[in-house]
Amino acid sequence: MISASSHLLTLSIAFLLLSLIGIAIGVQFHATKRYQRHVKDGLTYLSSFRQLLNLIQQHRGVSNGVLCGDTSLSTRLPVLQAEVNDQITWLNHNNSWLAHNPNWQGIVLHWQQLSRNYSTLTSMNCISQHSKMIANLLYLIDDSCEYHKLYELKNTDGDSVRYLWQDQLEAAEWVGQARAVGTGVAATGQCSSVERIRLKYLHTAIKENLSALHVDNDAKLIQLLEVIDLNLLSPAPHCSAEYYFDLATAAIEQIYTSFDQQLLSINQKSKWNSPSSQLLIS
């Protein structure tokens, strides 16, 4: 009887251990799936934020060109405003993290007011208001990436992919500001001391960081720097506002193309590393 009881106890313990192992594996499996879904959502939102950022940057440049007297750009404004509104609507409907985020609500309200009233602003105030809104959007992007654990993702060199939104999007904003200021200068044919200082600063920032942008083709960026230097910073600025805007847009697109390609590569991974016990998504 003692032998049979011991055997039964051993079997019971073995069954219990196997059950606990099975439960642990199941818990880890579901935690990993939740983690992967959480990260996947974050990558989707990052892509959408990038598109919104690009559209608002374009609106800044076009609206400033119009305020400075270049009517050839005016037909682009209604299209841009509609596209920004569509992107905001998509984010509102598909990103639950934003639902009660006061920073996002502030950005949306700021956009609604600015898109309606930009024509009443001075050129300098128009650029300033757009740039403040864009700065807040960049902060929000960083918060979203942190919440969705994107900092933990690595590229093929083993480095955090945070450079995508912290370096490349910042660089795109330097070019975006140069586009906005330069379009106004091209439209008026005049470059104030404030605009000259700003353009020189942006020219230097872009030039010194070209090698760190992870951009395969920087031909348009180099061409833009040459036009700023030779055409806009000259004693008598001479350049078509529409030409300059389109050139700067092509330069920004080189940065965004690199960004999109790298984001797509990350997104196409079949899975990411399993979260540690501290990273379980509840």
Low-confidence stretches: 273-282
Q: Counting H and I runs of at least 4 residues, what is the number of helices?
A: 8
> Helix/strand-derived class?
mainly alpha
Tell me, briefly, the overall form.
Answer: elongated
Distance between the termini: 48 Å
DSSP strand count:
0
**Order of H and E elements:** HHHHHHHH
- Biggest sheet, in brief? none
Beta-strand percent range: under 5%
| Helical fraction | over 70%
Radius of gyration: 25 Å
Compute the average pLDDT. 87
Q: Any overview of this molecule?
A:
This is Nitrate/nitrite sensing protein domain-containing protein. With 282 residues, the protein is mostly helical. The chain is built from eight helices and no strands. It has helices at residues 2-67, 76-94, 102-117, 123-147, 163-188, 193-208, 219-232, 241-267. The longest helix has 66 residues, at 2-67. The radius of gyration is 25 Å and the shape is elongated. The two termini are 48 Å apart.
Short description, anyone?
The protein has helices at residues 2-67, 76-94, 102-117, 123-147, 163-188, 193-208, 219-232, 241-267.
Task: Kindly list the characteristics that best describe this protein.
mainly alpha, Nitrate/nitrite sensing protein domain-containing protein, 74% helix, disordered C terminus
